[in-house]
């Protein structure tokens, strides 16, 4: 396998890690209005991701850095063309992070409600816009001969991309609600399972439609297999949730998101940014990649660094595996 091909799939794996891990953070944040009946409930929800949300978020930093180093032309075209959408994502992530840190600084109810709204918006906006962005990458955007994006922000809001955004929004929401049922006990656990059933039905319909559209319009037999596996995993997660097997439901939701992301990357390959106006202007893994020496150095670095990162993150989740409840939060106040 050539190094540019290897790094295409490494970047795909990094985005898989980001969407699986920060995806349930987004879902938990979006669930506050549905599961947080009072401040104690909302504190339980926030505490399920409190120790890990910032660690999960670093995956997008690593993915962006790898994209910049391995495929600078792809990075430049996407980050300039999608500038406004990516800026909105960045501002939403900042607002969410600030809210986690400042929400508990004052006891006032209005103070907390304001930051709760920022958590919901800071979770929903990236969950929607990441899907819009990646769907546009798969669909293709207008590029000139210098690989510059020639469209507008509103060109990105086409039906296929908006469906992609709705798909990621629902996938992350359901993923987060299942995570809440896995990490809590008592009434909030029961309500999270019921909410996952309701959102799961909508997620299955929307995600199946988006994956079918992707395969029929932009896919290949390989992407068809990946999309089919994603659909099977999603339905299996829904059934596991019905049977109150939260661990299986969460694992299968993670598999669904992973397979859906891989479906998008497989639909791209060997392009990295197709040109919708002229195929000759498309960015590919060949004309967008760095020099072989750069990719070689990156490969050796990743070989030693990635196992350490994965072991550390796995250890973190193992240490923080205990379930939370209202009693846990109420006891911490005294």
UniProtKB/TrEMBL annotation:
GO terms for biological process: aerobic electron transport chain. The chain crosses the membrane at residues 6-32, 74-98, 119-140, 160-182, 194-216, 222-242, 249-269, 297-320. It is a multi-pass membrane protein. Keywords: Cell membrane, Electron transport, Heme, Iron, Membrane, Metal-binding, Transmembrane, Transmembrane helix, Transport. Its main location: membrane. GO terms for molecular function: electron transfer activity; metal ion binding; oxidoreductase activity, acting on diphenols and related substances as donors, oxygen as acceptor. The keyword Transferase does not apply. It is found in: Cell membrane. PANTHER family: CYTOCHROME BD-I UBIQUINOL OXIDASE SUBUNIT 2, CYTOCHROME BD2 SUBUNIT II. This is Cytochrome d ubiquinol oxidase subunit II. It comes from Cryobacterium tagatosivorans. The lineage of its organism: Bacteria, Bacillati, Actinomycetota, Actinomycetes, Micrococcales. The gene is cydB.
